[in-house]
Amino acid sequence: MNSIEQMRWAKDLISEKTNGFMELSVGNMHDDLFIRASDKAMVGLYLSVLPNMKTQKYDCIFKGYTRCAGGYNDSKKMQKLTEEYQSVTDVLKQLEKAKISLTEDELQCFVAELKSAEEQIMTPSMGL
């Protein structure tokens, strides 16, 4: 699997394993990749795409974080939080194991592909 295929896999994995609460997306300002999280998500995933001077590639660094866990909760809410942590932990383990690195051209190609797909979703279809 090449780097672009790995990023497609990561995008699908994130969306699928978080039940659509998170998705890999392109930012508005500088076309940076980020993981968009639903307001309902209590646990999140973070993505940094950092240049690696040794390999001359861009490394995708994924991290997990707690979005909202304050206050007192009943057992149902605590169970939901536990399940979200487990789900994000499973995804994070797979993403870390993949060690995704892209060349600048691969990164630009993937961003353009993702941006195009997002624009198609946002553009209303003109039906007759």
What layout of secondary structure does this protein have?
Elements: H1 3-17, E1 22-26, E2 33-37, E3 43-52, E4 57-66, H2 75-98, E5 101-102, H3 104-122
Quantity of strands, as a count: 5
Span of the ends, CA to CA: 42 Å
Strand order of the largest sheet: 3-4-5
| Poorly predicted parts | none
Overall radius of gyration: 16 Å
Tell me about the biggest sheet?
3 strands, antiparallel
Verbal overview:
Helix content is 45%, strand content 25%. The protein is α+β, with helices and mostly antiparallel strands and 128 residues long. The protein starts with a helix and ends in a 6-residue tail after the last helix.
List keywords for this structure.
about 130 residues, alpha+beta, three-stranded antiparallel beta sheet, two-stranded antiparallel ribbon, 3 helices, about 25% strand
Describe the structure in brief.
The chain has 128 residues and is of the alpha+beta class. The protein contains three helices and five strands; from the N terminus they run H-E-E-E-E-H-E-H.
